[in-house]
Amino acid sequence: QLQLVESGGGSVQPGGSLRLxxxxxGTLDYYAVxxxxxxxxxxxxxxxxxxxxxxxxxxxDTVKGRFIISRDKAKNTVYLQMNSLKPEDTGxxxxxxxxxxxxxxxxxxxxxxxxxxxxxS
Length: 121
Prior knowledge:
- This protein starts with a strand and ends with a strand.
- By secondary structure, it is mainly beta.
- The protein is globular.
- The protein has no helices and eleven strands.
């Protein structure tokens, strides 16, 4: 049974940076891992995805050029580096192990509990 834990959220000013971490109790090597967020009053959306293997990461258009998803397989961890943060990036961020290994969609099998990101002056 795969369990995921997010960390690294917090409160920052616009233009600041945060790095979110997603660590699993079981190995993440066989999963595509997605980062999702849910802003106040909005539906949860997929933000970024990294496949189980290879370079073909995905990003929602609103974060392209600002966010970077990566893996450290030795630490069984997936990161989301978030730069040039904007107030509209505010929300609860979740990681999830996805149903398909190559980020072909956003269907998830396992979810973390979420970590709050707040971007404000």
